[in-house]
């Protein structure tokens, strides 16, 4: 007799859903999207795709060339403050954040950026 007939529709659905639940639980606990491990971006790509939209374009303060402490950068990114949102590990991985914090703290100012 077919498995779905022995278990009924609800029981068979649970059997089918179990691998998805396991994968979802693993993804949620690691902060990784389903089936797609985060490919680590370079600090310049992370900055360009996540930070530069606000920082350097009259929305948030200019942060390049200020030699901010890495711990300050990490805290601001994870916790947010005032108008800055907090970024989850699924948006900026811990490794990306570490590299970004070092890069921003050492980066020279960019004359193309303007802002507060």
Description:
It is a single chain. Helices cover 52% and strands 0% of the residues. It has 116 residues and is mainly α. Helix 2 packs across helix 4 and helix 3 packs across helix 4. The model has no long low-confidence stretch (mean pLDDT 80).
Short synopsis of the structure:
With 116 residues, the protein is mainly alpha-helical. The chain is built from 4 helices and no strands.
Alpha-beta content class: mainly alpha
Stretches where pLDDT falls below 50 for ≥5 residues?
Answer: none
Task: State the CATH superfamily name of the largest domain.
Answer: Cytochrome c-like domain
Count of the separate structural domains: 2
CATH architecture assignment name of the largest domain? Orthogonal Bundle
Q: pLDDT average, as an integer?
A: 80
Number of helices: 4
Q: Give the helix proportion (percent range).
A: 40-55%
CATH class of the largest domain: Mainly Alpha
Could you tell me how far the N terminus lies from the C terminus, measured between alpha carbons in angstroms?
71 Å
Number of strands: 0
Rounded radius of gyration (Å): 21 Å
Principal-axis shape equals elongated
Q: Please trace the helix and strand order, writing H or E for each element.
A: HHHH
Main pleated sheet: none
Strand fraction equals: under 5%
In the CATH scheme, what's the topology name of the largest domain? Answer: Cytochrome Bc1 Complex, Chain D, domain 2
